[in-house]
Amino acid sequence: MDEAGSCASGGVFRPGVDSLDEPPNSRIFLVISKYTPESVLRERFSPFGEIQDIWVVRDKHTKESKGIAFVKFARSSQACRAMEEMHGQCLSPNDTKPIKVFIAQSRSSGSHRDVEDEELTRIFVMIPKSYTEEDLREKFKVYGDIEYCSIIKNKVTGESKGLGYVRYLKPSQAAQAIENCDRSFRAILAEPKNKVSESSEQDYYSNMRQETVGHEPRINMFSFEQQSEFSSFDKNDNRGQEAISKRLSVVSRVPFTEEQLFSIFDIVPGLEYCEVQRDPYSNYGHGVVQYFNVASAIYAKYKLHGFQYPPGNRIGVSFIDDGSNATDRFGNLIEVYLVSGKNVGYAKYADRISANDAITTLHGKILNGVRLKVMLADSPREESNKRQRTY
DNA sequence: CGACGGGACGC
DNA sequence: CGACGGGACGC
Fold first, then answer.
1. Rounded to two decimals, what is the model's pTM?
2. Residues, CB < 7 Å to strand C
């Protein structure tokens, strides 16, 4: 590229190859079974967008699959959604291991390190100097769940430099912001600030456990290896004043049985019970699902709202405010919601100080190679906007 | 004459 | 553990 010798025969410029990473982060890297054919990949990944290329890597001589594949999408948001939805799934019932899905490293980078969410969820934008963080949030919340917004300011005068960051919960949301926001924002992915010192991740973990003992919160972390297959679409339509709780209301134009309801929601660990409520005056299905904890309910709502069951019919899932959520802004238990990659967790602290302490200590730290997100789980008093915290 | 292009975080 | 083919190229 930089040699003066132009493009002779050696270091060729191959448009076909270089376009593999155009636009950036539009190609996914898959670890799959050696027996999964390309047709299955096409079938399972085409719901996420326009597939431009599928390549199952094979041994040059034996032609046997190496259990690796690349799928190129037209857009980065499509690749991100495919990753978010398909990682951890089994493509076939007789597969022994769930598949892994990552955004592929660009070919020119040469690195084989997994691309982490940290690098895919924060965007860097140019904004009018008059913008506040709240203005920024208002402009960019339509693209997804914002974890935080920040603006670069002069440290002495406090005046904006016209540059800002928006951190989303999911890579697909950051990608959609970049793809769809006004061009005047010049939105791009932000370079990670701290070139990760993953060395002390074990320390953070033990710190967390110590704090846990000190303030007696309950922390539950779940591993959701098993996910299901929905072409989840508008997962973002429920950022209203919803009260988070362990109970979910399920509605459908098509009636369902208790067994069917159970089989759907049992996908998420922690299901306590479910029941169907028949409305004799309509043919709609209505049910109530309850989990043992809020984290499971949050995750279930996130994964199953908009799920097609039966195919072609989307079910709606929303929280039922039954008071089971012990969050309290003036009183006792403060809930903290944790997100670590594909895991979600939930903790209760005795007071706001302890909760804030946990947040400042843990938020953004790298645990097991994944960036922790720690937020207050509920804040019904906010007059402006509340965010949905689910991933 | 008259408005384009620029762009990085308190450790 | 689990990372890079195929095709055909400018008058």
1. 0.58
2. A 14, 16-17, 20, 29, 31, 53-55, 57, 66-68, 70, 72, 100, 102, 104-107, 109, 112-115
